[in-house]
Specification:
The complex is a heterotrimer. By secondary structure, chain A is an alpha/beta fold. Chain A is built from two helices and three strands, in the order βαβαβ. Chain A has a three-stranded parallel beta sheet with strand order 2-1-3, sandwiched between helices. In chain A, α1 (21-30) links the parallel β1 and β2. The longest helix of chain A is centred in the middle third of the chain and has 10 residues, at 21-30. The model of chain A has no long low-confidence stretch (mean pLDDT 90). Chain B is built from six helices and nine strands. The longest helix of chain B is centred in the middle third of the chain and has 19 residues, at 109-127. A four-stranded parallel beta sheet of chain B has the order 2-1-3-4, with helices on both faces. A two-stranded parallel sheet of chain B has the order 6-7. Chain B has a two-stranded antiparallel sheet with strand order 8-9. Chain B starts with a strand and ends with a strand. Chain C has four domains: 2-124, no CATH class; 134-298, FAD/NAD(P)-binding domain, CATH 3.50.50.60; 300-367, no CATH class; 379-460, 2-Layer Sandwich (Alpha-Beta Plaits), CATH 3.30.70. Chain C has eleven helices and 25 strands. In chain C, α5 (157-164) packs parallel to α6 and α6 runs parallel beside α7. In chain C, a hairpin with a 4-residue loop joins β16 (270-277) and β17 (282-288). The chains are: A alpha/beta, B alpha/beta, C alpha/beta. The interface between B and C is large, with 71 and 110 residues. β5 of chain B pairs antiparallel with β21 (371-374) of chain C, so a sheet runs across the interface. The complex binds flavin-adenine dinucleotide and iron/sulfur cluster (3 copies). Residues 50, 54, 56, 71-73, 87, 92-94, 100-103 of chain C line the site of one iron/sulfur cluster (SF4).
């Protein structure tokens, strides 16, 4: 089995801290900096809130990549 | 708590609607479990926009509200207030960022619309698990403690005292004044330090 | 200063320190330790009869940095506020060996109290301003090339301030500490301990370029036929009218030499400074009668311990950490605790005053309300699940969690055990404690495990 790379749409889940990374993503928006639409952001109150179990949950449900940013 | 979610998708003029098909997002939202009402509007944050939310809460007997618009860092407070004025708890509300984190950073209409739908699905799923929260209050003792009696501490103490509040100024040496009292004349004016 | 002392709303507690702070914004309880002064300040009139007769005449005056002398019973300096006398217990003959007591006999107000004790006072306040200022970098311990402090005529800038001050030990005449002669050639070295990763601090102390320009000008102005040499790395004059101020020193004849001094050694009565003029690329030797070091500002002694006691953080250099360098420059991570002056970082008086007023405004804003609304998105403990392990306690950056005994009913009747308790006024809703809890006893309202899992699932669909 092979993956047609041009059609493949990865699921990228981002956990972003409300105070820095989430704000930075907003700033990227303000500057209209383009990035792939497969990137989906979940807002967290702080990166300290991140439980490793949430990352595992994401992979378990089929995420292709998880980015924690804070 | 009953599951009666209302979804409101904002065009933000053309800021969102030029890239995201907001009607399609609203239509998709109507299919999500728990959603009983979904609509779009040109400017959700405007007075008529908020009015729309308030009325829908009453008419549709909404228990939860999801607004897909700009960043929550922008208007979360505005909408919490609107939701509360509509008659439900301000925390039975979630906001979806389809402007800063969608329409402004993608240009493929189909992909951006799909992303908006996914983000709304996420928020609906979350809001169904929200609990009403109460803002509580704590009393304030109107008295300040200033630690250190140099120019910084003296200035802060004076400003607070002048505003009519009590101040306790604690200094470790036997005299206030700090380093400045050891200086002769000070730049840039060369007036005396004491 | 007098305005502070006379203000009806200000209670001034000097010769005292804050030892403990508990509570949270709007509701702090602070413990103040008052050190024994051995003089009843309600009675002392500040007449000074005691100091005139005190036999301990030869003590080094800290205010004049050892350039002047004082007695055991003394004021910090003549214009001290409050203008009262106190006894330095370590050097008082009566307190160390039981003899003397002259001041007690002579004091017309009968204010002397040899049995004075340390006292603790508890106060309740709604907000705190940290204004503990700075100390000077101990160059004597780091700079061997400048003689480790063994040459009496190599002094710090603060010493120099005492020498030029009309209220100083020399009445404002610049004199060499070694022989009291007027120096004809004065050399200034900037950035001593600042901008020096190997021996000192990496940061710039911000005030020294300007006060050195001031000192060089004062030398030219006060001493006839004098030379003022300034060794520098850069001249930083970023302030309103600062560049003009520096130009005035240059116009007065101060000689600025770009280069670091690599060695100072004595030659006869004078000192030789070996350096290089890096603009000309030439080695250089300057003879001076007095060398003045512009030493770095460092956080004041005990500043770090105080921050710990109150519950906010210091930066890598020990200065108090502001909540955000641009947007919250006077706030700390502890709500209700604000920063003013050099405790937050080196700065000059204009910046210090501006920051102090900013901190005051923040507090006045806080005090404009009777009550404070608290953010409801805080952590909740399900005590039935909490095992009392305490893992979460040290994780919380805001010290919001404590283990508290709770009553429970077991097979053999009631018993007590420990369970975590979150103080919702301290909790900032960061959620850092949640991953630490093995039993899922903690949950953050608004960002519960259930909610986040639902989000992940919905996105991965
Ligand atoms: C040689 C020299 C010359 C200068 N010349 C100028 C000039 O001409 N113009 C200019 O604008 N700036 C000048 N400055 C800078 C100026 O000194 C500072 O900007 C200013 O003093 C900072 O004030 P502050 O209140 O923050 O700190 P400080 O003056 O250090 O005051 C801090 C106070 O807090 C007290 N304290 C410390 N710890 C505690 C504690 N734990 N509990 C209770 N009290 C405590 C200290 O005893 C002190 O009284 C000069 C600095 C130096 C070194
Ligand atoms: S008792 Fe102490 S302070 Fe008083 S005069 Fe004697 S030495 Fe000085
Ligand atoms: S202010 Fe000037 S002398 Fe002081 S550390 Fe900065 S550059 Fe050096
Ligand atoms: S959420 Fe953050 S602030 Fe609140 S108790 Fe947990 S660790 Fe402390």
């Amino acid at each position: 089995m092979s993956i047609d790379k041009s059609q493949w749409q990865p699921k990228i889940i981002v956990f972003a801290c409300n105070w820095c990374s989430y704000a930075a993503a907003d700033l990227a928006g303000l500057n209209h900096l383009e990035y792939p639409a497969d990137v989906r952001i979940i807002r967290t109150p702080c990166s300290g809130r991140m439980d490793p179990l949430l990352v595992l949950r994401a992979f378990n449900r089929g995420a292709d990549g998880v980015l924690l940013s804070g | 708590m009953k599951k009666r979610v209302g979804v409101f998708v904002c065009d933000c003029g053309t800021n969102i609607a030029s890239v995201v098909d907001t009607e399609k997002v609203a239509a998709a939202a109507r299919q999500f479990p728990g959603v009983v009402f979904a609509t779009t509007y040109k400017y959700m944050c405007s007075d008529p926009g908020q009015e729309l939310v308030r009325n829908a809460i009453k008419e549709q007997e909404l228990e939860q509200v999801v607004i897909a618009s700009c960043s929550p860092r922008m208007h979360e407070k505005t909408f919490r207030k609107a939701v509360e004025d509509g008659g439900i708890n301000a925390y039975m509300f979630e906001m979806v960022n389809i402007r800063e984190q969608d329409s402004w950073v993608h240009h493929d209409r189909e992909q951006a619309t799909q992303k908006a739908i996914a983000l709304v699905r996420m928020a609906v799923s979350k809001v169904l698990r929200n609990q009403p929260l109460q803002v509580s209050t704590i009393p304030v003792t109107r008295k300040a403690l200033v630690i250190g009696g140099g120019i910084a501490g003296m200035q802060a103490a004076l400003d607070i005292a002048e505003a009519g509040h009590q101040v306790i100024l604690v200094e470790k040496e036997a005299s206030i004044g700090g380093k400045m009292t050891q200086l002769d004349k000070t730049f840039p004016t060369m007036d005396c330090a004491a | 200063m007098v305005a502070v002392a006379q203000h009806p709303n200000i209670e001034m507690i000097t010769y005292a320190e804050v030892t403990q702070v508990k509570g949270y914004i709007g509701n702090f309880k602070a413990t103040i330790k008052k050190k024994p002064k051995y003089v009843d300040w309600d009675l002392c009139t500040g007449c000074g009869t005691c100091a005139e007769k005190c036999p301990t005449k030869k003590l080094k005056d800290e205010f004049d940095l050892g350039l002047g002398l004082r007695t055991a019973i003394h004021k910090v300096y003549p214009q001290a506020v409050p203008g009262k006398f106190y006894i330095d217990a370590q050097n008082c003959t009566k307190l160390t060996s039981g003899k003397c007591g002259v001041c007690e006999k002579l004091c017309p107000a009968q204010a002397i109290r040899f049995d004075d004790k340390e006292e603790y006072q508890e106060v309740e306040v709604g907000a705190i301003v940290m204004a503990t200022g700075y100390d000077l970098f101990k160059w004597e311990e780091a700079y061997g090339e400048y003689g480790y402090g063994k040459y009496p005529d190599v002094i710090s800038s603060l010493h120099f301030e005492r020498l030029v001050s009309a209220g100083g030990p020399t009445g404002g005449k610049v004199q060499r500490p070694s022989d009291g002669k007027e120096p004809k050639s004065v050399a200034f070295i900037k950035c001593v301990g600042s901008r020096d990763d190997t021996k000192g601090k990496s940061y710039c102390s911000r005030a020294c370029c300007m006060y050195t320009a001031k000192h060089a000008y004062q030398v030219k102005d006060k001493i006839e036929d004098s030379e003022a040499y300034v060794f520098y790395m850069d001249v930083r004059t970023a302030g309103k009218n600062y560049e003009e101020f520096y130009q005035r020193s240059l116009n007065a004849g101060a000689k600025y030499i770009r280069g670091r001094v690599s060695k100072i050694y004595p030659r006869g009565e004078r000192l030789v400074l070996k350096s290089e003029d890096t603009l000309l690329g030439r080695p250089l030797e300057v003879e001076a009668d007095l060398v003045v070091l512009a030493t770095a500002m460092v956080p004041s002694e005990g500043a770090g311990a105080l921050a710990k006691a109150i519950g906010f953080s210091s930066d890598k250099d020990g200065f108090y950490q502001e909540a955000h360098p641009k947007l919250q420059p006077v706030e700390t991570f502890a709500a209700g605790v604000y920063l003013a002056g050099c405790c937050q970082g080196p700065k000059d008086i204009p910046d210090t005053v501006a920051q102090a007023s900013a901190a005051a405004v923040k507090i006045c804003g806080l005090f404009s309300k009777n009550e404070l609304a608290t953010e409801p998105m805080v952590t909740q403990v399900d005590v039935s699940k909490c095992s009392g392990c305490g893992f979460c306690v040290p994780i919380c950056p805001y010290n919001a969690i404590s283990l508290e005994p709770i009553q429970e009913r077991g097979h053999h009747g009631p018993f007590t055990r420990n369970a975590a308790q979150v103080n919702s006024s301290l909790c900032q809703g960061c959620g850092a404690c949640l991953p630490a809890c093995r039993t899922l006893a903690l949950n953050l309202k608004g960002f519960t495990n259930d909610q986040l899992v639902a989000e992940v699932d919905a996105l991965c669909l």
